[in-house]
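pinned: reference chain
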Amino acid sequence: MSEKLDAIKKELQSRKEEIKKELHLLYSANMRITEWDVPETDQNEASKVLIDILQEGLDEIKASLKS
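pinned: its structure tokens
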């Protein structure tokens, strides 16, 4: 591995918990919005749909890096 790639990995690893926390905040904010918009929200079903949407977004990012 090149020194530059090592530096990038080290930098991202140093922020790993912060990045994961931001992902959790994004999930939580969207769940709150859903609960406000649809008061009778089924939490489990809403979580599954939201996680699928988040995963779809991550998959799109990953695909764009391959091309």
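why pinned: The chain has a mean pLDDT of 95. The chain is about 85% helix and 0% strand.
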